[in-house]
Amino acid sequence: MAVQARSLIIALLVVIAATALARAELTGGPNTWRTRDHSPGTCATYGICGHRKDRDVLNCANNTAAQPLPQHAARKLVDACPRLAAERGGAGGMFCCTEEQIDTLARQVQIASIFLVGCPACAQNFQHFWCMVTCSPDQAAFTNVTAVQRAADTNVTAVASIDVFVGAAFGERFYNSCKDVVYPVMNQRAMTYVGGGAADAQQWLDFLGTVKDARTPPAGSPFQINFPAAGPPAGMAAVDGDVPACWDAALRCSCGDCPDGPQCAPPEPPPPPPPGGCPAIGLGGHRAPSCLSLAAAAGLEAMDGEAGDKAFPWVERHLRRWFRKQGRICARRPGLVLALAAGAAVLCALGLVKLHVETDPQRLWVGAGSQAAREKADYEASFGPFYRIEQLILTSASGAGAGASTQTGRAAIVTDANIQLLFDMQERIDALAPHVPGTDNMTATLDSVCYKPLGDACATQSLLQYWKMDRGIYERGEPPFFTKLTPEFCFGHWSTQCRSAFQAPIDPHLVLGGFDEAAPGFRNLSVDASALVVTFPVDSSPRNQAAAEAWEAAFLELARGELSAMAAAAGLGLSFSAERSVQDELARESYADLGTVAASYLVMLAYIACALGYLPRGARPAALLVTGRASLGLGGVAIVAAAVAGALGLTSAAGLSASLISLEVIPFLVLAVGVDNMFILAHALERRPPDPAGSHVGFSESLPERVGAALAAAGPSVSLAAAAEALAFALGGLSGMPAVRNFSLAAALAVLLDYALQMTAFVALLALDERRIAARRLDALVAERYAPWLLRPRVQAGVLAVFLGALLASLAALPHISKGLEQQVALPRDSYLQPYYADVFGLLRVGPPLLLVVRALNVSRSAPDVDAVCSTAGCRDDSLLNRVALAARVPQASYIAAPAASWLDDFLAWIAPEIPRCCRAFPRGDRCPPPDQPPCNASAAACADCTACFRAAGPPGKDLLVGGRPSVEQVRARLPWFLEALPSEQCAKGGAGGYTDALQRDVGDPSGVAGLASGVVTASAFRTSYVPLGAQADFIAGMRAVRSMLGRAGAELGLDLYAFSVFHVFFEQYLTIGAAAARLLALAGAAVTVTIGAFTGSAWAAVITSAVLASLLVDLLAVMVLWSVQLNAVSLVNLAMALGIGVEFCAHVLHAFLVAPGPSRPARAAAALRGVGASVLSGITLTKLAGVVVLAFARTQIFEVYYFRIFLALVALGAAHGLVLLPVVLALAGPPSMRRQGQEP
Questions:
Q1: Which residues form the SSD domain (predicted)?
Q2: Helix, strand, coil tally for the chain in percent (to 5)
Q3: Is the dihedral of CA 351, 356, 357, 363 positive or negative?
Q4: Of 273, 344, 90, residue with least CA distance to 1033
Q5: Which helix (H) or strand (E) holds 916?
Q6: What is the pLDDT of residues 964-990, one digit of tens each?
């Protein structure tokens, strides 16, 4: 990519002018130079009369008859202009050019062929057009000399301006044959280089004919060549004739260069939209006809209720017997039980010494076995890590100061003052030299850590590159012309005359932002751009990591301080980022809301301590000192903390890392489960009074018997809930996302440990506390008012109508749930990345880079791989690169912005005999560079014996290129040469820099290219980019579209392909998040259903509970839609937790209903509410409500969005489903009692 485009265009236009005519003495009087004879067989110019001061040739104005060519010159004409020679008599014909002109023409057409050789029709049309303008014997019929000048070296009159008349149809066909040809090394249209980006035939011809003096700096034709749009005057005829289309059979171009060809398939359609049903959570129409199937994901199964046996089933009976014995033991030996429980908890918690809190986003959300993770690992193993990116975005304020107003109302950013400010900032950045930790005296500077693909200059993407990062060039111009280049000029000539310090062109879209070229009010980049973007690519090799991270830290400190102050002083905004920024901010986020989380838990603990105690009726407030159970509450909370610590200890000991989610959600979950169990157990004991009369004078039942009876009554429902929750969470361990997997396993262990400690240690604490007090407490609200009111027929009908309506409305909302996790939400509100991401998504006009990797590319001539990949002439019309080029024509569907840069296409062009100045060899067999590179440019004699590597015809030999395709041996010999060849004016196809990292290297292979010794390139990459991606949905859709296209291409072409982009590894989860959510919830729901059925012996009870839980989850998903909560790994964890807490809301009410005696469902439902309703209300609903409200004040948006909003909705919906909907359903259609009429538990 080190090609000097300015010189290329100069040279190309020189041929257009310099090959026009011959040297002649003008001896007549005034105006004898004018073209007066326009008859066929007449020349308007002939020969070369001299040179300009800059040594460019000037042609003679000579209206003379066409002349015959000497034999050796005629042979050169046949080689340089085969079509013109064939049409005009061959070697014996008459022509308007000399041998010197033919040599110049051949040399310069070869330069143009560098850009056009991939499309034979375009290359031949281009060649033939200039052959006609230069050598046609009818030249005067379409050419008219309009002005002359004196040659600087000969003082002879020479051409200053000519008119060349080209037929409109001819020009259009000529332009159309070349307009889509791709220049692979720069991943852009060749028209950008040979036509200045011309959009039609007239613009192209005008560009080619512009005299160099009209450009700054001077570049172009040595004299003006006009191509008048109006028709020719009387007596003249416009250039016309056959112009082969790019799809003509004999000269057919590939579909990448000729997408309009009839043989080319239309661009592939975008991936089909998600099927009907519940696309938001991955339930497509092929399996689920509607969103109602979400209920099935919770394990629903249509089953008929059975009357069943009124006696307790086997499981219930044995659990009661076990817990009765266990309760007696805990009450008799509470000290021993507590000691054993504490020892077990401490033993489990010992694993905390290995606790590791993971903050790397990739390790949190991407499983090692995921496709994106494998592709990233493969890419880095083949080509090394992708370079690190540091960025500054300088923005003008809305209505700021004076100056032009942009489309968005902001001030124009491209001003001299702002450019000078950018130079000042760059000087500060260049001066950074932090010490590299772990070294003695090593410092890191931008120059030492930056990415340098083309030599010694950093590949910084900045507006300043138009002046080679040099303030002097910006202010005074570049030697030797010292012509100041304006930003406006460079925005139009960035690919030719405003090259960067590292010799690559800088597209203005890379360094400007805040404009919309498609908007009706767009004027130009200078006026409408409102942002300057500076990108510093940094070498990401392992040896450079320590230095890069040290420099990034200094860069961020500078940007936060001095650079931000400089921008503010100028009335501008500055946002910035470094490669390490996201991980640094996520680590900071882990501690940003510790105070908020702690306050939330303290509020819940205070409520628990107060709610467990009570004030006996008629007692004085001082009685709370006796009946208050603050110590019991604190003991219960300590049990919850021990369960959480033990679970994290066990997972840490097993090598599983913790995350922010685990540390903040699991305590919340276990507290909800544990507190509920505390209230259930405490209230169960309260319902076993010391004596029937309640006089407290003598015990008719001992404390151990009371505790045993209470545990026998409550233990089965607690066991049911714990088993269902633990199994549901354990199945989440099957998730491929590490954060979800580790959370699920830790949550399952925490629930089990909490259950074990609640049934032992808390029962012991309860017995100790009961020895201190002997009063009972009745919940008058639930027992006397709520249950009877709820079970009225009209109220029941209203409840069912409300919940059914909510369910249907929620199902309708599900397709609108969005996927992703906005960066702004994941970061602290005060993060410096917040304004940065706002600028990136709102102002930048370029998309992420996209690398298409082909593995095991067989380069032998007999294998189909090369033609299945390349996009030059002779390649398959449906080849990989042709498909990419076609996809780039519909970026709104494909998300691909441009055709791919292809080392393969450029290599085939570099070795082509038609470009003999590229691949050359010295007689001794080593590589000979082009004539304009050392040592050839220092001495013509040094390379006089160099010959082209290959010939297109002749006897067999090592240098014969058969069919334009090299053999394996030829590839082995010349591909290393190509990769070390620097691009230049004489040969712009060199692979050094542009393709340095495009092929996997192997020092063990003789060629240096991995696998080439066996004729198979192990891995090679083809570079393109996505369109600008703003919303999370754009990233997801773009990744899906590219994978879909490559999947079809790989299958149809027989290629092993994959796509790599830096964001793939983070966004892959969203391609399957819907299916993952459905699978996780379905498995968990099925586990809950089976567990309830096993514990209760009633399939109907399991179905009812699962249906209520399914309704809860559907409503919670709808709340996510209404409250703008996206579906991602964080919300998926919360959904799994919601299922677990939903079980806690429902299981105790269900169990109480099943064990209540009597055939009347409403009476049993009322008994269930009286028995456990207050416990559920106090233990879960009010406890969680108190703690959730505090989270609304979190500093980090992820807490406010994903914890406060979801937890608040969960508490409200859980209480509504467990204490309103479930009792109504049980009263109307509940299963029969588990025990015989009148049998006591």
A1: 593-768
A2: 55, 10, 35
A3: negative
A4: 273
A5: none
A6: 899 999 999 999 999 998 887 788 788
